[in-house]
Amino acid sequence: MAAPPLPTALRRWEREQARLRAAVVEEDTEQWQKDASFTGLERVGGVDLSYTKGDDSSACASLVVLSYPALEVLYEDCRMVAVSAPYVAGFLAFREVPFLVEAVQRLQQEEPKLKPQVLLVDGNGLLHPRGFGVACHLGVLTDLPCIGVAKNLLQVDGLARDELHREQIRSLQREGDTFPLTGASGRLLGMVLRSCNNSSKPLYISVGHRVCLGTAVRLVQSCCRYRIPEPIRQADIRSREYIRKQLCSPLEVVSSGALSGKKGTGLDD
After folding, report:
1. What span, in angstroms and rounded, lies between the C-alpha atoms of 60 and 47?
2. Which ranges constitute the DSSP H helices of the chain?
3. How far, in Å, CA of 92 to CA of 122, rounded?
4. CA separation (Å) from 222 to 17, 143, 195, 206?
5. CA distances from 154 to 161, 181, 189, 190, 241 (A)
6. In contact, 175 and 217? CB cutoff 8 Å
7. What angle do CA 101, 216, 88 make, to 5 degrees?
8. pLDDT in tens, the chain (269 residues)
9. How many other β-carbons are positioned within 10 Å of the β-carbon of residue 24?
10. Angle between the 93-110 and 134-142 helix axes, to the nearest 10 degrees?
11. Reduced to 3 states, what is the DSSP secondary structure of residue 14?
12. How many whole angstroms separate alpha carbon 106 and alpha carbon 216?
């Protein structure tokens, strides 16, 4: 594991988060978002970074685009990448987002008609120590509506995995049931969603960019065949399979910013 960055780098990252945080839009901006059935929504994207077992510097960055509402895969982009930035809690974006931004840029250049109208991100948005998680970071840099979908509770602003929280989870009896995540500050940070009847483990939904929380929850629920929404599930499945295939042949690993001359930009927990 690489050594943590110097305090000066952390301060720089905090300033960058604060600067980009000002650009986050916490409301619906698209016409399809205002329709109860999401009429007009045709393409939903999902992103994932899967790491090679035993090597946290080698990963597969994956972007998939699914049709909506059929949830059939229209496009996939998997690429091995060399991850150089260390993992620091609250700053995951600086480690992973550049590769996901590049994947979106490749799609826009190669298959612009398949550009997703919204991205589902395996991570948090506003539910973050500084209100700027990976879904916000990716959303602002790509200017796409983004939704944070986390599998575990990030304990910020007084939120805790205590007995009260576990009791609230037990109260989610069927798919579509929710309860709000309100911090000690009084701010609504996200919603806890039971996404399917076959799993009692919930999802933690938060706003990333250009979507309101209610729309985010409804859309995630509509994308769930299993516990994990299909765009993220397919991105994860395909990135892991790509790594498996690559391990059977010489790995081709690229660094951020080295993809056909495309620029890198700055994902987060």
Report:
1. 11
2. 7-21, 93-110, 134-142, 163-170, 213-222, 230-246
3. 12
4. 31, 23, 9, 16
5. 9, 11, 11, 11, 28
6. no
7. 45
8. 455 546 888 999 999 999 999 999 999 999 999 999 999 999 999 999 999 989 999 999 999 999 999 999 999 999 999 999 988 999 999 999 999 999 999 999 999 999 999 999 999 999 999 999 999 999 999 999 999 999 999 999 999 999 999 999 999 999 999 999 999 999 999 999 999 999 999 999 999 999 999 999 999 999 999 999 999 999 999 999 999 998 876 555 454 443 333 333 333 47
9. 20
10. 40
11. helix
12. 26
d(CA 153, CA 135): 15
Around Cβ 174, how many Cβ atoms within 10 Å?
A: 8
Task: Tell me the one-letter amino acid at 113.
Answer: K
Residue that is written with structure tokens 């948005």 in the block: 125
